[in-house]
Amino acid sequence: MPQTISATFETRRDAEMAVEHLVQEHGLDRAAVTIAPVSADNSAGTETAGADIEDGHAKADTEGEPALAGRLRVSATVDPTLADKVETSFATYGGTP
To answer: What is the DSSP string of 64-78?
Structure first.
């Protein structure tokens, strides 16, 4: 019976890296993974990363961009035999249960 494993991440980049690791390294079906804000707020995480930074500083103008107002939750529904790999991948990219 499939098992759902979840972790929260501070940045969208970390969440996406965890998903890519699961898909590319462990062959997980991308459709079995979701990324969503933890709270009701639209969010790209709580810390700047990647596209959120210009010239080493956080962007001043974020018009049209998701607010950095909350953490992101990644959930993966997998066969229990993959549970350890999913948890390890989440932890590698800063996910916390």
So the answer is: TSPPS-B-EEEEEEE
